[in-house]
Design a protein that fits this description.
Radius of gyration: 22 Å
Distance between the termini: 69 Å
Strand content: under 5%
Mean pLDDT: 87
Helix content: over 70%
Order of helices and strands: HHH
Low-confidence stretches: none
Shape: elongated
Number of helices: 3
């Protein structure tokens, strides 16, 4: 094995776990974009059936839900970036460990923990804003119907 090569068993499980988290945030992104499209459909339906004046007597739920889904989409994209970047930091750390370069190991470890923190926070923001968006979306629909 070359000096810069790393045994696949050292990182394979980590890549699989990271891939599943990225798939999860991708689904939240997909559902958020679908909900944003749902808003457009509701607005067009309401405008078509009635005049534009007072089409939405209390648009606060629509606006708040829309903002929540936009935040969720942005956070999901951030998570995808940071989770992918974290794996490159992890591989760099493993390479530094295989060369037993203490200074580089510390640098890579600090960078990895920093990027993992960003990844974690963006995934949490994605989940929370999606949940809030769903609740506000249902309130907006109820407000829209009644």
């Amino acid at each position: 094995m070359k000096e810069s090569e790393i045994d696949e068993s050292r990182y394979k499980a980590d890549f699989m776990i990271s891939e599943n988290y990225i798939k999860f945030s991708s689904e939240l992104l997909r559902l958020s974009l679908l909900a944003i499209g749902g808003f457009a459909t509701l607005i067009l339906t309401k405008i078509k059936d009635e005049s534009c004046v007072n089409a939405f007597p209390q648009p606060i739920f629509f606006v708040a839900a829309l903002i929540s889904f936009v935040v969720c989409s942005a956070a999901a994209l951030c998570h995808r970036y940071y989770a992918t970047d974290a794996m490159s930091w992890y591989i760099s750390l493993l390479r530094a460990e295989s060369k037993d370069d203490k200074l580089k190991i510390e640098k890579e470890r600090i960078g990895l923990h920093k990027i993992l923190r960003f990844s974690r926070l963006s995934l949490i923001a994605c989940e929370v804003s999606f949940g809030i968006g769903v609740i506000l979306f249902f309130l907006a629909i109820l407000n829209f119907i009644y």
